[in-house]
Structures are given as C-alpha cells and as structure tokens.
Automatic annotation (TrEMBL):
The family this protein is said to belong to: Belongs to the sigma-70 factor family. ECF subfamily.
Biological source species: Spirosoma validum
The keyword Phosphoprotein belongs to this UniProt entry's keyword annotation: no
Transcription regulation keyword on record: yes
Annotated PANTHER family: RNA POLYMERASE ECF-TYPE SIGMA FACTO, RNA POLYMERASE SIGMA FACTOR HI_1459-RELATED
Example of a GO MF term: DNA binding
Superkingdom classification of source: Bacteria
Protein's name in the database: Sigma-70 family RNA polymerase sigma factor
Residues spanning the membrane: 178-200
Length: 201
C-alpha cells in the first residue's frame, strides 16, 4: 500500500470503494490538513472539526478528481476553500497566519534585531489579514505552499494570466497595507521619542 501514489489510491478507492485506500490517503494528509485549518482558526478544537468536515467532503468528491493537478494540490484547494467559506459564513476572526517559514527571520542572538524582525513579521501578518479571504488564499497557495500558477489556475477555473493578474493585485495591496502600517508605527515612535526628549514643550 505504501508504494501507491496518491492518484493511484484515489483511482483504487473510486473503483472498489474499499476503505483501506481512503484510510491511507487520510493517514498521509490528516496532519497537513489539520495544520492548514489551524492556520485559519488558531483554535485547535475548531481546526479538528474543520479537518473532520473536509475529509467527509473528500469522500464524496473523490470521484470528481480528474488529475488535472496533483492530488495534494487538489486537497489543499478544498481545504483553503472550505476554511475560507467558514471564515465568511461564521464570521470567524480573520486570523489566517503564516507558517513559521514566513515569520522567522535569521537574526540570531541580537535582541534588538530580533525584536525588530518580530515587529516586521507581525506587521506583515496584519497587512495580510486586511486582504479579502480569496486574496489571502491565493497568496498563501503561491508563496507559502509553493503551488504552481498552472495548478492554481486549474483549481480555480481561471486562466494562468488571470491568476498572475490577481496575484499581482493582491501583492500590491499587501505591500500598500504593510507600508501604511509601518509608516504609522514609525510616526508614532518618533512622536513618543520627541515627547520623552522634550517633555515640557
């Protein structure tokens, strides 16, 4: 069973309806789907519920898998879309956050640099939250999960040029949000510094 590819397991499950094939897919991807759900909710219990729901949906949807993209990409798309829908319909706090590889900057032991890097990471995360869920999703698929433009286009029923255009617009918005936030904190820091320096002005 271990040597079967994801796509072979899907085909075998659809043909035979034997649970062992689905269980193998579940075993391979349960933790990854859970971590992605957790990145949307920051609530372990809610993430468990979403993961359970997604795999229930997957059982029903497996027969519609056409292998236009890798199974993992297709499953991540279902996960993203479901979590985004839940975010919208249940008015969850928009706290999609970036995985560690986005947040950690190589600042080693310098405490001052580490504090600045943490502030920058938080500002970037805050800027990301200001985007619409669909924009967040597409950016994270491309730049966090390294899903190709072609696969994103296939998953979302878009052309590759449309995906590139949406990514560019979302990047521009992210940059604008980030710079506006950074400028606000810089001005605030200057104001605080001046008031400390000249308290009797």
């Amino acid at each position: 069973m271990q040597h079967f590819s994801d796509e072979e397991l899907v085909r075998l499950y659809v043909e035979t309806q034997r649970n062992t094939y689905f269980e193998k897919l579940y075993e391979r991807y349960c933790d990854k789907v859970y971590r992605k759900c957790l990145s949307f909710t920051k609530d372990p219990l809610r993430a468990e519920d979403l993961t359970h729901d997604i795999f229930l949906k997957l059982v029903v949807k497996l027969s519609s898998f056409r292998e236009q993209a890798k199974f993992s990409t297709w499953l991540y798309s279902i996960t993203y879309n479901y979590c985004t829908d839940q975010l919208r319909s249940h008015n969850l706090r928009r706290e999609v956050y970036m995985d560690d590889n986005w947040e950690r900057l190589d600042v080693e032991s310098d405490d001052g640099l580490a504090e600045m890097a943490e502030m920058e990471a938080k500002q970037l995360e805050k800027a990301l939250h200001q985007l619409a869920p669909e924009e967040q999703t597409m950016l994270l698929m491309k730049y966090q999960d390294d899903i190709s433009i072609r696969d994103i286009a296939s998953i979302n029923g878009l052309t590759e040029s449309a995906v590139k255009m949406r990514l560019k617009r979302s990047r521009d918005k992210l940059r604008k949000n980030y710079l506006e936030g950074a400028l606000f904190w810089l001005l605030l820091a200057i104001k605080v510094a001046l008031s400390i320096r000249w308290p009797f002005r």
